[in-house]
Each structure stands twice: as structure tokens, then as C-alpha cells.
């Protein structure tokens, strides 16, 4: 199953669940903002579909709890990356390696 197919299934399940975005995301164990982003992306995809390299899902928890406020913002090959909280250098390096490889 592709990433797009997986997120389409989540968006469809959310719509038919009758739950709020927050409630569905919590129940499914997914990020609420990612769910709404995919809802928007899939609605606007039309017949052409999304660009394969336009979105990179990061499944590993990167940020520390919200109490540790701080933001890192980077533009890598046309991709904007925003990370809030503390991030381990090794984890951020792996994310940047993936983005660089997609250029």
C-alpha cells in the first residue's frame, strides 16, 4: 500500500467515523495535522494526483514535549521542514539525508 493509499484510507475512515479530527487521530495513533494536510492534498489532487516527492512522512517522534519551546525551520530542495521542541542531532541528520536524496 502506498503512502497516498494509506492516508486516503485514513481520511475516508475519519469522514465516515463521525469523530472530530482530533478524536479520530488520537484513536488511530496518527498526527492530527498530517491527517488534515492529507485531506486537503487528496481533495485538491484531482485527476493528476500528488507529486510523489512532495511529502515525506516522518513516523518517528522527533520533538520533545511542548514545554520545550523552540523551532528549527529549514528549506531543503524546495521542501520546508519545521521542527518544534528539542531534536536529537542524529535524528535530524537522518531526516535531512532523506530530503537531500530526493533532490
Structure description:
With 103 residues, the chain is mainly α. It has two domains: 3-54, no CATH class; 58-103, no CATH class. 49% of the residues lie in helices and 12% in strands. It has four helices and two strands. It has helices at residues 3-17, 21-28, 32-45, 89-101; strands spanning 71-76, 79-84. The protein has a two-stranded antiparallel ribbon with strand order 1-2. A hairpin with a 2-residue loop joins strand 1 and strand 2. Helix 1 packs across helix 3 (32-45). It is globular and about 40 Å long.
Please outline the helices and strands.
Layout: H1 3-17, H2 21-28, H3 32-45, E1 71-76, E2 79-84, H4 89-101
Antiparallel strand pairs: 1-2
Helix pairs in contact: 1-3
Compact description:
It comes from Nannocystis exedens. The protein has two domains: about 5-55, no CATH class; about 60-103, no CATH class. About 50% of the residues lie in helices and about 10% in strands.
Using brief descriptors, characterize the structure shown.
single chain; 103 residues; mainly alpha; two-stranded antiparallel ribbon; 12% strand
Low-confidence parts lasting 5 or more residues at pLDDT below 50? Answer: none
Q: What is the typical, i.e. mean, pLDDT? A: 76
| Radius of gyration, CA atoms, in whole angstroms | 15 Å
Please give the number of β-strands: 2
Number of helices: 4
Beta-strand content estimate: 5-15%
Give the SSE order as H and E letters.
HHHEEH
Largest sheet at a glance?
2 strands, antiparallel
Based on helices, strands and strand pairing, what is the structural class? mainly alpha
How much helix, percentage-wise, in residues? 40-55%
Q: In the residues, how many domains can be counted?
A: 2
Shape: globular
Name the strands of the widest sheet in spatial order: 1-2
> End-to-end distance, in Å?
24 Å
